## 1
Amino acid sequence: MPRPRSLTHAQVASAALTVIDRDGLPGLSMRAVAKELGMSTMALYRYVDDREELEAQVVELVLGAVDTEPPPPDLPWCERIEVMAARLRDAVGAHPAIVPLTLTQRHRSPAQLRWAEAVLAILTAAGIEGEQRVIALRGLLAYIVGAIQLEHLGPLSGDGTVAISQLPPGDFPYMSETARQARDVGPDQEFLGGLAVLLRGLGA
Amino acid sequence: MPRPRSLTHAQVASAALTVIDRDGLPGLSMRAVAKELGMSTMALYRYVDDREELEAQVVELVLGAVDTEPPPPDLPWCERIEVMAARLRDAVGAHPAIVPLTLTQRHRSPAQLRWAEAVLAILTAAGIEGEQRVIALRGLLAYIVGAIQLEHLGPLSGDGTVAISQLPPGDFPYMSETARQARDVGPDQEFLGGLAVLLRGLGA
DNA sequence: CTCGTAAGCGTATGCCGTACGCCTAAACCC
DNA sequence: GGGTTTAGGCGTACGGCATACGCTTACGAG
C-alpha cells in the first residue's frame, strides 16, 4: 500500500562505487552519493542506516562479483587455489580505492564466506585437515589481503622503490641493491611468486 | 633569538598515541590531541603541517620501537626471520588501533627500512638472491601485514568465528567445521604457524 | 631595556554525518 | 473515482571536523 521505492539497494551501492572510482575514497560522502543519484542527501538515509552500512554495501558489491564456483577439478590443487586467489585479487584490483574499506568490512561479507568455503574444499581435497587447515586458510587470506594492499599502496613499480634504490649503500646495502632488482618484477610476478612460496610450504 | 618551542615532536606524537589508545582511531582529531597537550587546536599546527603528518609521526613512534638489531647469528636463518617478524608484530600489537594507519604510512617509515634491511641480510645469508629475494621480502611483508590485520579486525577468538561455526552445514559444510576447529588455535599459533608455512616454502 | 621572532591562540569558513519533522506520491479499499 | 494510509523524499539545523589567516605575547639576543 505504501509508496514504492524508486531505487534498489544495488543502485545505491553502485552509485557510491562510481563516486569512489571517480573521486577516490576521500571523495565518498553521503552528499556526493546523493548527488550522484539525483536525490537529496537525506533521502539516502531511507536506504542505509548510516555511512558505515553504505561502505559495507560497496564492499559487498565488489566482493560479490568474485566467482566462487570451484575451479576445473582436473587442475592440481595448488593451481586451483591460485585461481581462487587471482579471482579475489582481480575483483579488488578493479576498484583499488576500496582496499581500505575491505579491511573493516571483510569478515561480514557473505561473498567472502562463499570464497572461503570453496578454498577450504580444495585444501581438504589436498589432504590438509584439522588445525593445519585453519592455519592454511588464515595464512592464505593474510597473504592475499596484505599483498593486495602492498600492491596498491606501495607498489614495486612506484616512487618508493626508486627512492629506496637511491638510499646510501653504506647504510642500506641490501635495500638499495634489492630495490634495483625489484624494477624487473611486475605486479603479477610478485603476487603469484609469493603465493607460490606459500603453496610450496603447504605442500611439503 | 625567537621564543623556544615548549614541546618536542616526540611529545606531540606521543600525545596522539595516548589519544588513540584511549579513544580509538575515530577519537583521533587535532582538537583531541591539542587538548591532551593542554594547548589550543591551532598551536598544534606549529608542530605538524596537517593531520596526515601527525598520523605519520604516530606510526613512526610505534615502528621506531621495533628492535632492528640482527638476531643471534647462531640461530638457523628461518628462526632469525621469525624473531624479526615477531618484533614487528609485537610493536604493532601493543597499539592495535593504529593498524589502519600503518597501511598508508608504512613505506615512508625509516624504521621500516631498517627492519627490511635486517631481513634482507638474513635472506641473503640463506642463499636467496635476485628476484627471488625481492619476492621473498615482499611476500613476508604481505603476510605479516595481513596477519596483523586479520588478528585485530577479525580474530579467530572473536564473534565472527562463533557465527561461522553456526552457519547452516548444508550451505557451508567446510566453513562450519573449520570454525569449530579454529577455537583451539591461539593467536600466536596462528601467526607463527602461517609464518612457518611461508618459511618452509622459501627453504624448499 | 628594547626589539625581532616565532610560539601560541581566536576567529571564521566550509566541509562532514545525521537527527528531526514536514510534505506528498502512490497503492489499496470502497 | 475518491479517500485513507503509509512510507518515500526532502529542508533545515546542529555539532564536530580540518584548517587558513591574522593577532598577541613570551622570550632571548643585543
Note: The domain at 9-63 of chain A is CATH 1.10.10.60 (Arc Repressor Mutant, subunit A).
## 2
Amino acid sequence: MEKIGTLKRKTVISELTQGRELANQLKNQIYPANSREACGSLVEKILSSYEKALSLLNCMAVLGETSPVSAAILESRNSLVGTPTSEGSNPFSKEQNQREVFKRRKILPKWSEEVRVCSVIGQEGPPDDGYNWRKYGQKDILGASFPRAYYRCTHRHTQGCLATKQVQKIDEDPSTFEVNYRGRHTCIQERLKQNKEDYNIKEEDSNHRPGIKVETPDSTPKEEIVPSFSFPSTPIISDNVETEFLLEPAKESNFTESYGYPFISPATSDCNYLSESLCQMNDFCVDYNLQSSESDFTNIVLTPTSATNSLFRDWDFTTDPVEFDSSFALEYF
DNA sequence: CTAATTTGACCCCG
DNA sequence: CGGGGTCAAATTAG
C-alpha cells in the first residue's frame, strides 16, 4: 500500500479533501432545511469524489488480492476433486468440511474493510449496507464490552458467495459500530427496493465502497501496485470459467464492478461461482468524515441521519457506465 | 410452511 | 489451554 504513485496519492488526497469540503457544505445545507435540489447535487458531487478516491484505492486492493485468492480457490478445488478422501466415503464429511472452512479462513481473507458506522438515532443496529446478510454467530470478545456478531452473505449456499462481515459496537461509543468486511461478494443480489419519495441520484452513485484495507496474512509484502489493469484477468481455471463468463447475462456493468473473481470452483460446493462481483457497499452514504487526513484510508466514519438515509436506495447498477467510469477508469487503470 | 436468528458446541491456532 | 470463528440444532419471525 505504501507504493502508491505520487500522482495517485495526490489525486486521492485531493479528492478526499474535496469530498470533505463538500460534505461540510452539505451539512450546512441540511440544517437550515434547504432545498432538496441543492442537497442532492451536493451529495452527488461528494459521492463522485469519494467514489473516485475509493475506487482508486479499491483498484489497488483488488490487484493485491486477486492472485492469492485464485490460488486459494484453485487449491481447495484440487483438494476436493483429486484425492479420494482418506476418511469415509463421503467427500463432504463434517471433518473434511471443517478442514475446508479453516483452510478458507486462512487463505481467503486477503482483504477486508473496516468501516465505522454511527447508527441512526432511534434505530438499533448499524444501517443497512445494501447486501443481504445472514447472521450465523455471535461471540463475546475478550476485553470488549459488546459482543461481536458474525454475518455471511445470504447467498452463500445458492451462489457460493463467501462474503462475510463482523459487526461490533465500539466500546467508547456504543452508538457506533465497527463493521469489518471479509471477502468480496460474488453473488448477484436483487437490489434495494425502490424508495417512494426520494431523489433520483444518478448512476454514478451506483457503486460505493468504504475504504479498503488489504491484509495479507502471509506477511509477504507482495502487494505490488501494478498500474495496469487486466480485465478480465487471465482465467486460471480453464474449462469452466469461460463458459460461465459467457453465460453470465451481459450486464453492462460499471467498470468498477466488473472485476470480480473470474474464478469458478465447481468442486468446492454445489453452487455456481458467479463471475460478477457486486461491490456496492454503502447504502448509507451520507455525511462522510474522514477520520484522519493522511494515509489511513481504512477508517471512514459514516454518519447517516434518518433524513438522508433513504436517499440512495434506488441505485440501478445495470445502467450505463457514467462519465466517471469511462474517463476515470481509463485514466487510472 | 420457509427463512432468519439464537446459542452452545466444536474446531483451529497462537 | 483459551480466544475467536464457524456450525448446526433449536427456536423464533414472517
Note: Residues 94, 97-98, 101-102, 105, 136-137, 139, 141-142, 148, 150, 152, 164, 166 of chain A lie near DNA strand C (CB under 10 Å from a C1').
